[in-house]
Fold this protein.
Amino acid sequence: MQFQGATWQLSQTHFMRNFLHATPKNLHDELYGKVRSILDAPEVETARPLMNQVVSDYSEKAPKAIQVLENGFDDITAVLSLPERYRKRLRTTNGMERLNEEIRRRDRVIRIYPNRDSVIRLIGALLMEIDEKWQPGHKYLDMKDYFVWQHVTKI
């Protein structure tokens, strides 16, 4: 499935794991702080010069890590184009990971399904149950501000 016009946001947590995996051990603490400042920048226009500085300072010391940073920069900073109040919740995939874990937890109990339809029924029922819990006023994100911002910025 494709969502036309949707922005791709790479989980910053997963990116940082991949980045540190490619970083020499003796530079972990140093580069973690520098990349964290890129991720915490208020907008992409601030993050890009920070990234360029890290690239110029560490391209010879940590070439693999710098390659990971350059390749993932646009995907990890996509969230910076959104209003600030949404960034904290959308910079990671925690919500989706939690939902997937709940599906796996229920799946482990059954293990063998008689057919495809039974899988769809079980997962569908679980998703409907979770949706019903969220319906009565529980909001992960209040989208009113987003729609105002979207209208003003003409996305």
